[in-house]
Amino acid sequence: MATKSLQAKGEDLAIANKQLEILNGGIFADGELPYFKDNIAKIGHFPLRPKKLEILQINVGYMCNQVCEHCHVDAGPDRKEIMTRETMQQCLEVIKNTGAHTLDLTGGAPEMNPDFRWFVEEAAKAGIKDFIVRSNLTIIRANKKYYDLPDFFKKHNVHVISSMPHYTRGKTDKQRGDGVFDKSIKALQELNDRGYGMPGSDLRLDLVYNPSGAFLPGDQMALEADFKKALKEDFNIDFHNLFAITNLPIARFLDYLIASGNYEDYMYALVEAYNPSAVANVMCTNTISISWDGWLYDCDFNQMLDLKVASKIKHIKDYNEDILNDRNIIISQHCYGCTAGAGSSCQGTVA
Amino acid sequence: MADSYYDPKDLRKFGKITEWSEELGSKFFDYYGKVFEEGALSAREKSLIALAVAHTEKCPYCIDAYTKDGLQRGITKEEMMEAVHVGAAIKSGAVLVHGVQMMNKHDKLSM
C-alpha cells in the first residue's frame, strides 16, 4: 500500500512529460499498436471536437486522506495544491452563467479544501440541476469535523458519487488502504440513514468501481447487480447506480503497471477493447475540467498530464464558453482508457 | 522462432489463426463468442467453468485469460480457487474411478 504520492517521493512519473513520453513511445512509436489519433481518424473523429457543454468538473485540490494505488491524480495527504477562495469566486461567476447542467466537484478529497462548504453553499445558490460531489466515503469518518457531511450534502441536495472498489473487505483494502472498507461501509450506512441511495429517493448516491489491478472493468450492469446483492445482504446498504470506470494509464496507475510488468499487456488490452462507437460520447466532448489553480483542461486526466486546452481561453479568469467550445480536444494514448469496451467516463459507460 | 513452446505474448495473436483459414477461424470465434454470452448459465458462471477446464486442460493461455476474465467480473480469488478444486476433484475422481476396473480385473484374475 502506498503511503506517499509520487510527487513527494520525487519519482520520475510525477512529471507529466515523463508520462507522455511513455504513452507516446515504446509499443506505439514502433508501430506495434496504433496511435489513438489514427484509430479515431478512421471513423472521422479526428480532430476530436466538443459537443454541447454539459458538465463543469472542478478539481478543488489534490489533498486526500487516502493514497490509493490506482490514483490518477497522485493525490494524498502530502499534496498541497488547494483551490483558493479567489479561484472559487472566479468559478462561481462561471457557474452562474454556464450552459452546463451539471457541476462536478472532485479532488483529492474535495471536502478537505478549507473553503469546500462555503463553495458548495454558494454554488448551490446558482441552482445548477445536478450538483455532484465525488466523495471517497472514508473522509466522512476520518475526523469529527467531517461527521456532519451527510447532513450537509442532504441540505444542499448534493448528488454523492463514491468510490467502492469491491464489496469484499480484502479487495477494497488492498487498493485503498487498511480499514477503508469498514469505514466506507459505515459511511454508506450513514448516507442511507439520511435517505441517500434509497429506492425512489431524490438524494442520489452512486458508486464508482475501479478495477483493483491491471485489468479492465467487466460489464457495468452485471457488476452493479453483484454489488447491490452483496451490499444489501451483508450490510443492508442501498445505492442507486454503479459506474464502472476504467483505470487510465497515468500517474500512480501507470507507475504500478510498469513496476508490475503489466504495462504492455494493459495497453494491448485497452487497444484490443477499443470500441469506435464509444468515441462520440467520451466525456471530454461534454465536459470542461478546471484545476485547483484555475487552468482549463479537456478532462481530469489531461489535467494530470498538464495538457491545457488548445484554446486561447486557458484560464477560468478569462472564461468564454463559446470560444472554449470551438477547440480541438487534446488526445494521447491514455484516451484508449475511455473507449475500451462499453467506454468509460466519470458517469460510467458511454457506449 | 521462439526457443520455448509457450510465450505469453502468443495469446495476443490468437485471433491470427483466422488469417490462414478465414472460414474455419471465423466460425470458431463466432461459436466461442456465442458460448460465453449470458444464457441459461450466467456469463459469470461460464467464466468459472472455463477457469476450471483451463486447469484440467493445463492450458497456460486459458489460465491467464480466465484469471483475468474472472477479475474483470469481480470474481474473488476464493471463488477462483474453488473452481480449480472442482477441476482437480473431477480429474482425481476420473483416475480413482478406474480403481474399480483394477479391482474388477484383480478379482477376475484371482482365485
Features:
heterodimer, A: 351 residues, alpha/beta, TIM Barrel, eight-stranded mixed β-sheet, 10% strand, globular, B: 111 residues, mainly alpha, AhpD-like, 5 helices
Fold topology:
The complex is a heterodimer of chains A (351) and B (111).
Chain A (H helix, E strand, L loop, with lengths): L5 H4 L6 H9 L1 H4 L6 H7 L12 E5 L25 H13 L4 E5 L9 H10 L4 E6 L2 H5 L6 H7 L3 E5 L5 H8 L3 H14 L11 E5 L10 H16 L6 E3 L6 H9 L3 H10 L3 H4 L7 E4 L5 E2 L2 H5 L16 H5 L26
Parallel strand pairs in A: 1-2, 1-7, 2-3, 3-4, 4-5, 5-6
Antiparallel strand pairs in A: 7-8
Chain B lengths: L16 H4 L1 H14 L7 H14 L3 H13 L4 H33 L2
Characterise this structure.
The complex is a heterodimer of chains A (351) and B (111). Chain A is α/β, with parallel strands linked by helices and 351 residues long. Chain A has one domain (6-338): Alpha-Beta Barrel (TIM Barrel), CATH 3.20.20. In chain A, 37% of the residues lie in helices and 10% in strands. The two termini of chain A are 33 Å apart. The relative contact order of chain A is 0.17. Chain B has 111 residues and is mainly alpha-helical. Chain B has a domain at 42-109: AhpD-like, CATH 1.20.1290.10. In chain B, α3 (43-56) packs antiparallel against α4 and α3 packs across α5 (77-109). The longest helix of chain B has 33 residues, at 77-109. Chain B starts with 16 loop residues before the first helix and ends with a helix. The mean pLDDT of chain B is 95. The chains are: A alpha/beta (351), B mainly alpha (111). Chains A and B meet through α11 of A and α4 of B.
Compose a concise summary of this entry:
The complex is a heterodimer of chains A (351) and B (111). Chain A is α/β, with parallel strands linked by helices and 351 residues long. Chain A has a single domain (6-338), classed as TIM Barrel, CATH 3.20.20.
